[in-house]
Automatic annotation (TrEMBL):
UniProt gene name: cdhR_1
InterPro entries attached to this UniProt entry: Class_I_gatase-like (IPR029062), Homeodomain-like_sf (IPR009057), HTH_AraC (IPR018060), INH-QAR (IPR052158)
Presence of keyword Transcription regulation: yes
Top-level taxon: Bacteria
Cleaved signal peptide residues: none
Organism of this sequence: Falsiruegeria litorea R37
Protein name as it appears in the record: HTH-type transcriptional regulator CdhR
Amino acid sequence: MQDWSKTSAATQHIGVLLFDGFSNHCLANTVEPLRAANMLSGRALYDWQFLSLDTGAVTSSSGLQVAPHQSLSQATGDLLVVMPSYGFLSHSGWRTQAALRSAIGRFDTLVGMDTGSWLLAEAGLLDRHRATIHWEELIGFAERFPEVEAVRERFVIDRDRITCSGAMAAFDLVMHLIGRDQGQALALEVAQLFMTRDSARSHSGGAGPASMFVNRALAIMQENLEHPIPIPEVARRVGRTQKVLETRMKEDLGASPAQVYRRLRLNLARKLVMESDLPIAEIALRSGYDDPSAMTRAFRKEFGKSPRALRS
């Protein structure tokens, strides 16, 4: 079962190792959810640095230049994200292999994004691990590295190695890590910010039919924040019993449908408090509360301060 709400005391330090030809899309899908998690939580849950093998600028496949904060040889952290994307074979020589091997002692977990899995495998860092890669390269990857268990999945977490199949899957992976490490309540809020409908899959990593009806339930809730509908009606609209919906939502998100629905409404209330000058009574109505006092009590319980205190 997923954790709905928890607090991580320490900031996670992430190094993003870029190579010429990296994908802007993959980079944004990796970093932007982390930035949003910091913003929404009001805490420095994550920090990140862009790294390279040299100190010069790195150029993406579409011509965007990124100046690295430092070289890989100087960096330490919790996660090292290896991101070559296009032209990865030109980066798979001995120099890259040596640099990645030397990073093992300075980073707790190695992450291969997109075709980064190939570079990790070339350095012998995925031996006896399950791993994936961009699916266009999967057959060649399996043939080239028989000591790696290659699988066709969006992302794979195997002990201190993580591999991811592409730019869109990078978003799912990072959402999963946010939910795992910071709780599903924050992950759901990040998903709302990015307007993704596949929230449950992004959180739990699942993609089966059960998670699909949780996604539909979340969409129904989001469409009915001002005028909440009863949970039995949500279950009826997704074609499941209330008991089945509650069981699956607790497995996927670590909370009951009522808890999730309340959080969605209070997230809207917090957004209106921070970004508008609407009266608290009006905000209460827009977030599904007839009684402003009831909304204020729920708001304080959820976020640790009243709407007026947050606004001031």
